[in-house]
Amino acid sequence: MVALLTAVESGFAQDSLRNGPVRAPANRQFNPTETELKRSRADVIQKMKETRAGAEKLLALHEAERQRSAEEYERRRDLYRQGLIARKDVLDAEQVLADAMSRVEEDQRWLAETDAAMTEATMRDELLRLPGLALGGYSETSALVRFNGGALWSLAGAAKIEQYFARAFGHALPISALGQTATHDRLHLDHHDAMDVALQPDSTEGQALLNYLRQAGIPFIAFRSAVPGAATGAHIHIGKPSPRK
User: Fold this and answer.
1) Which residue segment(s) compose the domain that 23 sits in?
2) Do 212 and 137 form a contact (C-beta atoms < 8 A)?
């Protein structure tokens, strides 16, 4: 995954070298226009889609590695029970399995973060065209569910949401992005005080989370739509909208 991200950054650097540096007039700061930001965002999204295809292949390799590690761990555990190998051999296999599982989880998290960020960037213009919501206002479209809760929200409140979800469903809240990430930087999205949850808003868990957020007065935007070329961009953005950085 590090190699993939490095390749993307290298691609951005090569583009800059080919096109030459953008020079601002010496007497004023350069401020990109909205058209330039859209073009830049579109270029970044296209590169991210291409990188995503490689990330999916890497995930498949890591999944296969995890499966082999799990089988080896079970084999060694059986041998240990029979008194044929030392306990250390089992512990070594257990560590290899844990490392393999971590790689799979990191791949999945990166894919979910990327899909969510691409969705927000792609749907940004549609979101900005919608009328503003009054405090406590709620609206639904085929693509979005919005709630302008009046609670004072910051990432410090994330722990309470995680605790609620763990109690309700017996597993961790699938957070794909907590605060600002390098992906949001590249897409010019201000995500510093928001979190993304990789849940389909219309699923049982998604609906329960949306109901909890509304009762707590916590603002959110739930994205139902997927981005073409991505497995799914559906997710729940907790916090105020982050249309531009």
Assistant:
1) 2-122
2) no
